[in-house]
Amino acid sequence: MKKKLLLIEDELDLADNIKSILELNDFDVTTARDGVEGITLAKKIVPDIIISDILMPNKTGYDVLEDLSRDEKT
Fold first, then answer.
1. Are the C-beta atoms of residues 7 and 22 closer than 8 Å to each other?
2. Residue 56: left if φ>0, alpha if ψ -120 to 50, beta else—which one?
3. 2: DSSP letter
4. Cα separation of 47 and 39, whole Å?
5. 13-68, pLDDT tens digit by residue?
6. How far, in Å, CA of 45 to CA of 39, rounded?
7. In this model, does residue 1 exceed pLDDT 90?
C-alpha cells in the first residue's frame, strides 16, 4: 500500500521535480502551492507524511506545523 504524502511547495518546477521522484519511490503524492492550501489538504486527506517548504506566501512552513499540531486528527 502506498504511503500518502503531502508536499507543500510554492516553486512549481521544484514541486514537480520532487513529486516525480517521490512517485517513482512508490508514494501517493498530493501537492499544495502554499501553506493555506497545505493545511486544507492535510485536514482533508490526512497524509502519512508532510514535506513542507518553510518560506512561502500566506502561511510559512512553521505556521503550517503550528496549525496542524493543534488538530488531533493531523
1. yes
2. beta
3. P
4. 11
5. 999 999 999 999 999 999 999 999 999 999 999 999 999 999 998 999 999 999 99
6. 10
7. no
Q: How confident is the model at residue 70 (pLDDT cuts 50, 70, 90)?
A: very high
User: What is the SS3 assignment for 7?
Assistant: strand
Amino acid identity at 22 = L
Residue with cell 496549525: 67
- CA 28 to chain centroid, in Å, comes to 12
Question: Which contacts (CB < 8 Å, 24+ apart) does range 48-51 have?
Answer: 48/3, 48/4, 48/5, 49/3, 49/4, 49/5, 49/6, 50/5, 50/6, 50/7, 50/8, 51/5, 51/6, 51/7, 51/8, 51/9, 51/18
